[in-house]
Design goal:
173 residues, alpha/beta, 60s Ribosomal Protein L30, Chain: A, five-stranded mixed β-sheet, two-stranded parallel sheet, 4 helices
Length: 173
């Protein structure tokens, strides 16, 4: 019998993605955040913003601004970066639920921040759509459907083209 975790891994693989392994941040005075915080309700979790990772690192192709000539990232690559953010967020979900995906009650809210150069550009939802699609294709509509905010910003840490965070509900053991 296939577990939900195996199904998540297989669904990501079908999309050319993999479940990212999440490690705790180093203990340091510089790090003033954790990858997740427990919300007011025991079953609500809120992640910090994540960068688009592949094999634990942010590829150079995901660094730059959407539409800027010198640091140009085309829409398709920004969407791919958003899909990798989703895979990274799913890695955090895997850590939260300790591999028991039956505990995941549902996604609540996704925030997508898109690093862009053109003040007239307003198609940020097209970038965030890629992450939403990964969640829906991986978890199905009952768990993967979520509320969402998609915004453009003039800069992000590490000059990433996109950063995302997620709120979700997890059943107690």
């Amino acid at each position: 019998m296939t577990s939900k975790r195996d199904a998540v891994i297989a669904a990501l693989a079908e999309q050319g993605l993999k479940l990212e392994t999440i490690t705790d941040p180093p203990s340091s005075k510089i790090v003033s955040f954790m990858p997740l915080c427990i919300g007011v309700q025991e079953t609500t979790f809120h992640t910090s913003g994540v960068a688009p990772r592949r094999d634990g690192k942010v590829p150079s192709e995901f660094i730059g601004k959407l539409g800027k000539e010198n640091w140009h990232v085309p829409m398709e690559r920004a969407q791919l970066a958003a899909a990798h953010c989703a895979a990274t967020l799913l890695g955090i979900v895997d850590k939260i639920c300790e591999g028991d995906w039956d505990r995941v009650a549902g996604l609540v809210h996704l925030t997508g921040l898109v690093n862009h150069a053109d003040p007239e550009f307003a198609d940020f939802p097209k970038v965030t759509d890629a992450a939403s699609g990964v969640f829906l294709n991986t978890l199905g509509p009952e768990i993967g459907q979520h509320c969402r905010t998609s915004s453009g910003v003039s800069g992000l840490p590490g000059r990433y083209v996109v950063e995302m965070n997620l709120s979700l509900r997890v059943r107690n053991k």
